[in-house]
Design brief:
Elements (H helix, E strand, L loop, with lengths): L12 H31 L6 H26 L2 H20 L3 H29 L5 H10 L2 H18 L2 H5 L1 H16 L15 H26 L4 H18 L14 H19 L2 H9 L3 H22 L8 H19 L12 H26 L5 H30 L7 H22 L15
Helix pairs in contact: 1-4, 1-6, 1-8, 2-4, 2-9, 2-16, 3-4, 3-8, 4-16, 5-13, 5-15, 9-10, 9-16, 11-14, 11-15, 11-16, 11-17, 12-13, 13-15, 14-15, 14-17, 15-16
């Protein structure tokens, strides 16, 4: 009788600790470099090229995500994880010792490719190692992995960059990556190795097609972001149109059929990941600006509000993974979208004095709770809906949707702000319209959440 019991999560603690630590380091890299970038570009005489420091990492990460999905499905997680660790660590070393900004860009590209390989491989590793009943709790730890970097990362990176050396922001990550790597590498020997010709396996032609599409998506996203920032000119408009075309053409073969049409089941789950990311990150990118410009906050005070969002996201991730929660998982998407939409509508009342800007903190924390409920659930259902041998490509599709959604959300919000910003009269009306539009979009996402449940009753969406 005891053999039918679900193993305790404590039985997997070393593996869980290794995975969560690596994700924490990737998260630290994401939040800390944003703080250090102004300092290092000034020292390397490349302030005008600061945007490339971020875009080259994102582009390489997208390509790494696509490659990792195919690689995991054809060969298992062993080599994607090993290669991802090496590339990520080597990229950090190159950045830390970079004599010029162009050398630093090479390191950022290498680290981005490694991060893309690792993020997808971690999802597949969860499917290979953890029973399905424990996977929701594992994904709650994925959310928690962003807490410490989100709280400590900016302050620590800022202190290192200003008082010691910005190079340590990169170099300190390398020794910290050694212990979790030593824990995970032996475990990889016991994970499944997918044989060519197995059911669901990719053919060589399909692997090549995915690689070409990955390059197309990467180029498309770069053009799309560049075009949105210059949409008021003819060149920017052309770049935007070409970027959208390349992104869509490259994206479609890399995701389940019907994703762009919200086909019921897995396609909708993949699409929802991008819809949630676009809605949340598009709004988040302008929360500090509203607080500073409209309410007179200092930068560190505005950052504290975003820290509340990190805590809320973690809470939402914990709730969705609680073993006693019994709820159809697609309703977590609906609930998360309703919470986010309500919070965004609430922001319309806080765009300027006399209301206190500090009231944004609980609203944004609530908004992030909705994200924690939804984003962790997309990972759970993606693995649950994936056939054997397809976890890699579907996890890759999930990460692609996330990245594209965030890029579009931030880009569209930025373009709208740039077009209607009033440097003289203030932006109270503009912020009100932005929050109303984002909240209305949340209503659409909530309705789409009902389509995350498959038409077939063969796959359960109940939280376990």
């Amino acid at each position: 009788m005891s053999s039918n019991r679900t193993p305790a999560l404590s039985s997997y603690l070393p593996t869980l600790a290794g995975i969560v630590t690596l994700i924490t380091l990737i998260a630290f890299e994401a939040v800390a470099v944003s703080t250090a970038m102004p300092v290092l570009t000034r020292e390397l005489d490349a302030v005008r090229e600061i945007g490339f420091g971020f875009s080259v990492f994102i582009a390489a990460q997208l390509l790494g995500v696509v490659v990792s999905g195919s690689w995991c499905d054809t060969s298992g997680t062993r080599w994607p994880v090993r290669t991802g660790i090496v590339l990520f660590g080597a990229g950090q070393l190159i950045c830390g010792f970079a004599p010029t900004f162009h050398a630093l860009l090479a390191g950022r590209a290498m680290a981005g490719a490694g991060a893309g390989l690792l993020v997808v491989a971690m999802y597949v590793l969860v499917a290979d190692v953890f029973p399905s009943s424990l996977q929701p709790r594992v994904f709650s730890f994925f959310s928690a992995a962003w807490v410490v970097p989100g709280i400590v990362g900016p302050a620590l990176a800022g202190w290192l960059a200003e008082e010691v050396s910005w190079r340590l922001v990169f170099l300190l990550v390398v020794p910290l990556a050694v212990p979790p790597s030593l824990v995970l590498l032996p475990k990889l020997r016991s994970t499944p190795s997918h044989e060519p010709g197995a059911p669901g396996a990719l053919t060589r032609a399909q692997v090549r097609l995915r690689a070409v599409c990955g390059v197309g998506v990467t180029a498309g996203v770069l053009l799309l972001q560049w075009g949105l920032a210059r949409i008021d000119g003819l060149v920017g408009l052309v770049a935007l149109i070409v970027g959208v075309a390349l992104t869509v053409l490259g994206f479609r073969p890399l995701v389940p059929a019907g994703t762009l049409l919200l086909r019921r089941g897995l396609p909708t789950v993949i699409a929802l990941r991008g819809l949630f990311a676009g809605m949340f990150f598009g709004a988040e990118s302008f929360i500090p600006l509203m607080l500073i410009n409209q309410h007179g906050f200092e930068a560190d005070q505005a950052g504290l509000v975003l820290t509340g969002g990190i805590v809320g996201w973690t809470l939402g991730g914990y709730v969705q993974g609680h073993p006693r929660l019994r709820l159809p998982r697609h309703l977590l998407f609906v609930s998360g979208a309703v919470i986010i939409s309500s919070a965004l509508f609430g922001l319309t009342l806080l765009t300027s004095p006399p209301t206190s800007g500090w009231l944004v903190l609980p609203l944004w924390a609530a908004c992030a709770v909705g994200m924690g409920l939804a984003i962790s659930s997309t990972g759970v259902l993606t693995l649950r809906y994936s056939e054997p041998g397809q976890q890699g490509r579907n996890s890759s599709a999930l990460q692609l949707s996330d990245a594209l959604g965030a890029a579009l959300g931030i880009g569209v919000a930025g373009a709208a702000f740039s077009a209607w910003h009033d440097p003289v009269g203030g932006d109270t009306r503009l912020f009100t319209i932005m929050w109303l539009a984002a909240g209305g979009f949340g209503v659409f996402v909530a309705l789409a959440g009902f389509r995350a449940r498959p038409s077939s009753t063969g796959l359960s969406t109940t939280v376990q």
